[in-house]
Design brief:
Length: about 160
């Protein structure tokens, strides 16, 4: 249960970073048109976008990462079974899975639906895509770091589930 909560929190942090990136790009576009966008406006844009995308992008983002992180956590060595080098490798693997899962998600939506399939507008550019993919890496790092904390019980690998 603890791992599930950590996965949901890690994915929600990644989603929040993704929304902040998208609203920052939108604000920069407005500034490029000569419209003044203050800090309060930027915060309001991010909050509005967070809520606005919560019905589509949030469930996709959280669902994708929760499933992948929990599956990987089940089969990847836990803290008590590995050295510090392996812990670093574990963090790298979770970050890579978080990043690659979003990259494949974006490519899949783009392939299937074209520009209308873009989940967030700033993901249409290479820089935006890289920034959003990086939020998946952050989610993976958060999950791997907190599931390696001393309170996390080792993952059982036997068939009895004990």
């Amino acid at each position: 249960m603890r791992s599930l909560i950590i996965a949901i929190v890690a994915a929600t942090v990644g989603y929040t970073l993704s929304v902040i990136i998208n609203s920052t790009v939108s604000a920069a576009t407005l500034v490029g048109f000569g419209i003044e966008v203050g800090l309060g406006d930027r915060i309001q844009m991010a909050a509005t976008e967070w809520v606005g995308l919560a019905s589509t992008y949030l469930p996709i983002y959280v669902g994708l990462h929760v499933v992948l992180f929990l599956l990987l956590h089940r089969f990847f060595p836990s803290r008590s079974e590995s050295s510090e080098l392996n812990l670093a490798s574990r963090r790298f693997v979770f970050a890579a899975v978080g990043a690659l899962s979003l990259l494949l998600l974006y490519i899949g939506f783009d392939t299937a639906m074209g520009l209308s399939g873009v989940l967030v507008a700033s993901g249409r550019t290479l820089g935006g895509l890289i920034a959003h993919v990086a939020t998946g890496a952050v989610s993976g790092l958060i999950f791997a770091s907190f599931t390696n904390s001393p309170r996390e019980a080792p993952v059982s690998h036997d068939s009895t589930g004990s």
